[in-house]
Amino acid sequence: MPSFWKVVKQVIEESDVLIEVLDARFPEETRNKEIEDKIKNRRKPLIYILNKSDLLKEKIKDIEIKLNPHIFVSAKDNLGTTKLRKLLLDITEARPLTVGVLGYPNTGKSSLINCLKQRRSALTSPTPGFTKGMQKIRISRHIYLIDTPGVFPYLEKDEGKHALINVKDYRKLQDPESIAIKILDNAYEKNPKIIEELYKVKPKEDSEKTLELIARKFNWLIKKGNPNLDLTSRKIIQDWQRGKLIL
Ligand SMILES: Nc1nc2c(ncn2[C@@H]2O[C@H](COP(=O)(O)OP(=O)(O)OP(=O)(O)O)[C@@H](O)[C@H]2O)c(=O)[nH]1
Ligand SMILES: [Mg+2]
């Protein structure tokens, strides 16, 4: 059994309640059903947190989420955390209460814990896969949270999906070009102005051309003045992953 599964199993055993941190922009894609099943089998309550809701374009009230219970949160703007504290205390009578925080890499598990604690205890980073081991953090007299390393479903190995839902570090991608092109295609379809505003080029329908234009605009070139498409693609994916391209 891979070591992260051991951590996940141990966290589920030790916790009275589990939180699954999802990215509010991709709730379905960032669900780890293997973990959800394990939690269900152990008959422990599970709360779905839709984090990074500050990056949503739509209004929260217009979004239909079928997962229950769920709370929209922004660990960045400290939104939704009072509701979460209250739900944690209502959902079980266990005191002290131990809460395991699980989810895909980079969804904001450590940030959420810091936000609940109201000061920095768990280290965070824009790089997916940052938290390595589990860490138990006291956030109030009765509540302990366990921070964990993010995990993908074991059999899921789709690099394109992982890049688009921000759970794989842009520096480690094997084929950044096809992913950057997908991002540009998507942006062109939804709102070409955003490409223009961010990269100061007039986007083309053919995103390969747009990629080249961006490379030239920023002088990201290789020998003989050819565009460095690998570098340009990684920069675009980085912008996407850091929430600069809100579509
Ligand atoms: N805009 C926005 N960014 C957030 C929010 N929460 C976290 N982030 C950012 O998302 C990135 C990942 O945050 P972490 O808290 O390190 O995520 P994690 O789930 O602990 O990641 P791993 O430890 O790698 O599994 C960081 O760059 C955070 O600043 C949020 O509510 N809004
Ligand atoms: Mg972390």
* Global geometry: elongated
Determine the mean pLDDT: 93
**What is the straight-line distance between the termini?**
39 Å
- Remind me, CATH topology of the largest domain? Rossmann fold
The low-confidence runs, each spanning 5 or more residues with pLDDT under 50, are none
Strand content: 5-15%
Structural class: alpha/beta
Overall domain count: 2
Q: CATH superfamily of the largest domain, called what?
A: P-loop containing nucleotide triphosphate hydrolases
What is the CATH architecture term of the largest domain?
Answer: 3-Layer(aba) Sandwich
Spatial strand order of the main sheet: 3-2-1-4-6-5
The CATH class of the largest domain, by name, is Alpha Beta
Helical amount among residues, as a percent range?
A: 25-40%
